[in-house]
TrEMBL record:
The keyword Cell membrane applies. Residues 47-149, 191-298, 313-403 form the Cytochrome c domain. This is Alcohol dehydrogenase. Heme c 3 binds at residues 326, 329-330. Its main location: membrane. GO terms for molecular function: electron transfer activity; heme binding; iron ion binding; oxidoreductase activity, acting on CH-OH group of donors. The keyword Nucleus does not apply. Its cofactor is heme c. SUPFAM superfamilies: Cytochrome c. It comes from Pseudomonas endophytica. It is found in: Cell membrane.
Length: 430
């Protein structure tokens, strides 16, 4: 689609959402009454506060509400969306700049229904998933948040350009894309799988990254089949053997969530943060439940393309780059080093239709997650300064079509665009 058509589509889409938003706002407003939570709160009860701290872990609250190196939960973390920058709010107990003094019902209205004291929340705050959280979990989370020390830190949350900075639009967005419904386990589902379903689609809000979005940021129908955001591609979580978890054993999935690494992969980007802040601290029963649920997902529809022939000029060029720059760590067979350097052969992320994460890592480098189960992970050096766009494209194409892999070619134009998106340095050869 041309740039002009894209802009025109965005304008029309905003007009539609604006119209729907006006109607929704006029009819329902921001003051819709929600049923009060049945669960009780006692912030002086150590057991409830401890349960709430665990809910905060499963919900990965600290990752978004904390600036790296800043005070926990004091907000300010910048979320880059296709519509502009949104900064996470201060959720400490400061009464001026945080949420000190909020009632349980106010807290619930924001967390599960997407309406704060200042109006509709942007779905960068995953209330679309948190709506599935139970009364007890929300009450426990509130009890824990109520114990956080107040930090005076004013955050300008909405830095979006017009018209996206108009919160009334979100009334229309919610009407179109938000199902304000509690979690109900599918009849006949084993308790372990039901718990995994709840964690993945509720507090874990995995679809926020792993489900593709439409032009307006709403989820598309292909749930958990992969999505791209902020220069990273979150891979398919279904049982697709080519781009998903079809070749992963239960042990592989649990190891990845617990330590940040498995036979096939090492966490990077937003998933690195999720592992370090959330999944490594989850108990074994919940990790097993998540794994059991993911294993029930039917295979995604991604088709397996025909591999690019080894005789292709770009493959020949890519092989030369791989042998000179990559082979020392990833070895000639693409096997890598178990739990340290990811295996490239049969790697679902390597086979993904969108090479965004591969481009990000090659250009910017990556640190391995630091977890209790894997405290000495290896780092990936950056190659933005060292390799031309053509060489990066060639080596990516080679990796994506060797050792049984098959995926579309990567072009120099894609590398150039990725450089701009992630803020990579220019090649020194220029």
């Amino acid at each position: 689609m041309s740039t002009l058509k894209t802009v025109a589509a965005a304008v029309i889409a905003c007009a539609v959402v604006g119209g729907v938003g006006f109607i929704a706002f006029a009819e329902y407003g921001q003051h819709k009454n929600f049923a009060s939570i049945s669960a009780k709160v006692d912030s002086a009860d150590p057991a409830q506060v401890k349960r709430g701290q665990y809910v905060a872990i499963t919900s990965d609250c600290v990752a978004c509400h904390t600036v790296p190196g800043g005070q926990p939960y004091a907000g300010g973390y910048a979320l880059q969306t296709p519509f502009g920058t949104i900064k996470a709010s201060n959720i400490t107990q400061d009464t001026e700049t945080g949420i000190g003094g909020w009632s349980l019902d106010q807290f619930d209205k924001a967390v599960r229904h997407g309406i704060g004291t200042h109006g509709y929340l942007y779905p960068a705050m995953p209330y679309t998933a948190y709506t599935k959280m139970s009364d007890q979990d929300v009450a426990d989370l509130y009890a824990y948040i109520s114990t956080l020390a107040p930090v005076k830190h004013k955050v300008v949350e909405n830095e979006l350009p017009f018209p996206f900075n108009q919160r009334m639009l979100l009334a229309g967005w919610n009407l179109l894309f938000f199902k304000d419904e509690p979690f109900i386990a599918t009849s006949g589902t084993p308790p372990q799988v039901a718990r995994g379903d709840y964690l993945v689609n509720g507090p874990g809000h995995c679809a926020a990254c792993h489900t593709a979005k439409n032009l307006l940021g709403g989820d598309v129908a292909e749930a958990l089949q992969g999505g791209t955001l902020q220069g990273w591609h979150a891979p398919d979580l279904t049982s697709n053997p080519h781009t998903g978890l079809g070749k992963w054993s239960d042990e592989d999935v649990i190891s990845y969530l617990k330590t940040g690494s498995s036979r096939q992969s090492v966490a990077s980007g937003p998933m690195l943060e999720a592992v370090e802040n959330s999944t490594q601290h989850m108990n074994d029963q919940d990790l097993q439940a998540i794994t059991a649920y993911l294993k029930t997902l039917p295979s995604g529809k991604a088709e397996v393309p025909v591999a690019v022939a080894a005789s292709d000029p770009q493959m020949i060029q890519g092989k030369r780059v791989f042998e000179s720059q990559c082979e020392a760590c990833h070895v000639s067979s693409g096997a890598g080093v178990r739990r340290m350097i990811p295996e490239l052969r049969g790697n679902a992320q390597v086979n993904a239709k969108d090479p965004a994460s591969l481009l990000n890592v090659v250009l910017m480098g990556a640190d391995a997650p630091l977890t209790a189960g894997n405290p000495t992970g290896a780092g990936m050096p950056r190659f933005d300064w060292k390799l031309a766009d053509e060489d990066i494209a060639a080596v990516q194409t080679y990796i994506r079509n060797s050792w049984g892999n098959s995926a579309a070619k990567v072009t120099a134009e894609q590398v150039k665009a990725a450089r701009a998106e992630v803020g990579a340095k220019p090649w020194l050869g220029h």
